[in-house]
Amino acid sequence: VYQTYENASQQRLIVVANRLPVSAVRERDGSWSLQVSAGGLVSALMGVSNFKTCWIGWPGVYVPEGPERDALTAALAKECYVPVYLDPKIVDLHYNGFCNSVLWQLFHYVPLNMDSKLSETRTLQFQWAAHQSANQRFADVVLRNYSAGDVVWVQDYHLMLLPAMLKNRAPKMKVGWFLHTPFPSSEIYRTLPVREEVLRAVLKADLIGFHTYDYARHFVSACTRILGLEGTPEGVEDNGSLTRVAAFPIGIDPERFARALEKPNVKAHIAQLLNRYAGRKVMLGVDRLDMIKGIPQKLLAFEKFLEEHPQWRDKVLLVQIAVPSRTDVPEYQRLRSMVHEIVGRINGHYGTLTHVPIHHLDRQLAFHELCALYAVTDIALVTSLRDGMNLVSYEYVACQSDNAGVLVLSEFAGAAQSLGAGAILVNPWNITDMAAAIEDALTMSDQERRERHRQNYMHVTIHTSQTWADTFISELNDTHVEAELRTKH
Ligand code: G6P
């Protein structure tokens, strides 16, 4: 797998993430096709090219051992992707259960399930056991693929136990861990029954990174309050040994979008859409169908706007792309029904024979379709209730050089700290204010729109995913030098 690299002097980066950047999908004829996975983590890491990178992760499907699994492994190996196969029971308890019904919720300020009965407590124990064995499976694959000198970059909340599992077996391995979600206030985090085990395991990393300074601060408080360790400006100290903790705001690869906008198929798509939307203003929402994205709140704000501004009713359209996500988790199934109900109600009430106010799609778009939509729409609505960063807002800005469209952005997205100056910031829980923000965005002067866009565009083009990765990895390499200096003194 690794001999395909041309520049052997480059340090090898092993990215370990729950999901590979492509997910395997079974075609009708039984063959496998590889589809780009959804989400900010993949979108950012795809923009990182300065390293010779190998990915280790779950391919999204279960394939029993045998020739079929070998064929998929070989297809992935061509891209330097190493699959971690997990059996369906583990996937259910670890991925659907512990990761997405417990950690994901808690990290986005959704309290643990209030109806927990005795049997559910037992479920949590099973989920935790499965979570530990899934992390162990990942550790085994990393150790099998690791060579001295490689740097290992563990991603996200699914793999918080991995730093300890790796360091216990390979103490000299350089291990970084980065969280792509918020890290909540320690007052929320401390409700997690296994709060200590998780913190102790992740603290074994050499460098711990978050999107914002606030998330890093919450993490350090959790370590001081729950584990009684010492928080310093550099990180967390335990008996003289320091784990460095810092903020590394992620970005995108804006060039990838700029290049796409020059391609004939994207240009053709843009022309088609402009024709279709002529005479109307178009607002855009692009989200994984996840409760943290605030899709119902966005729809309710649009409904309120239509109710209060009859003159706009046939002149404005919301295109909402809701990418299916974690479809086996009950919360996500309930959200889908709720969103469909609200969309149906608004379209039924405000639609006419010639105009439908919400164009809602339950699917992921091809990259060229997405770029075209980003480019032609007048407003983007990002209304997350909590969001680690939210790179849709970055992608929208990157595609808006010609139009200078308005970004309406939740103050609860990490991106509010970087794009706050150019965006209209909203509290997604305040439907009245969000409806007012829609009006402001629709009626903003050309000059103000351009000035706001200029500020955002500057930020997006300077703070790229490449800079993010370079900064993290160079700091990770330095942590070892620092640690050696400390032991010498
Ligand atoms: C978020 C998480 C990622 C995850 C992505 C898609 O961005 O931070 O780790 O990969 O959502 O979710 P999924 O469960 O489909 O991998």
Automatic annotation (TrEMBL):
Transmembrane segments: none annotated. In the N-terminal section; belongs to the glycosyltransferase 20 family. This is alpha,alpha-trehalose-phosphate synthase (UDP-forming). It comes from Coccomyxa viridis. The chain holds residues 74 to 562 of 1001 of the full protein.
